[in-house]
Amino acid sequence: MEPPEQAPVAPHECEAFAAVGRRLADNVSQAVQIRPETLNHVLVALFAEGHVLVEDYPGVGKTALARALARSIDCQFARIQCTADLLPADVVGTNVYDQREQRFEFRPGPVFANVVLVDEINRASPKTQSGLLECMQERSVTVDVHTHELARPFIVLATQNPIEYEGTYPLPEAQVDRFMIRVSLGYPAPRDEAGMLADHESGDRVATLEPVVGAGDVLAVQDAAARVRAAEPLRDYVVRLLWRTREDPRVDLGASPRAGLMLLRAAKAQAMMQGRDHALPDDVQGLAEPVLAHRLVLAPECTRTAAREVIADAVSSVRAL
What is the fold, at CATH topology level, of the domain defined by 11-227? Predict the structure, then answer.
């Protein structure tokens, strides 16, 4: 069944919103050495109203990337440094008794910012991690039966170190599934790394960044990305990719329907960033690995890299109509 009709995206809107993405990318690149493809994935998540899990070794710029993106947008930024003793109330907020007014009032936590950096998320306890589920899915917080809406736009960028396990709590599948995209930065090329040393030896380049877009610009792009056309054959193609991961013998639990929805929304945002009013199979194929791989539950005998191989095999074997 065809989805409800939405107002089509006008050609001039496509180019204007693609320019917003280019301004953000250029500004972030001034302070962080990052592959253009990886930065593109982060911006896709932002414009598709998703969240990003940045998973890589220490010292490669995970936190700097989140800070640079936040400083490039003229909106509120908050950082949550996760530790084992961090409580859910420290994240979402709590009710505090006002003696003068003789009533309880809600004190919002850091998740009420527009761009929220959750640093070393796997160092928070499962109880605290669960406090992020409602925030990331419903864009709201419920405290003492009262629901509070979060700011818009809203994006969570969480970081974690995949090789350090002492004092950490692995993210449950339900939490991992809330992240639209997982990216890894990797080490820069030697020439780029030498340039980074020269750029940063006199101070923090991220701290000098100025905003290049406003919150209203991001909301406008998000609205337009939702109106990008995805034809029925493209939706069928996404479903067939999902089923291929579910049938793969290396996988105990394949990509869920939510994963397919995330992939389609990401593909539409990618099309918008390229100035198009319609999504293509190329958009889906380019985003399949960062959107789907972290959602697969692999068979016990498989290594972590098998998830990427499963997605690559699905993309190569499933034909787009």
Answer: Rossmann fold (3.40.50)
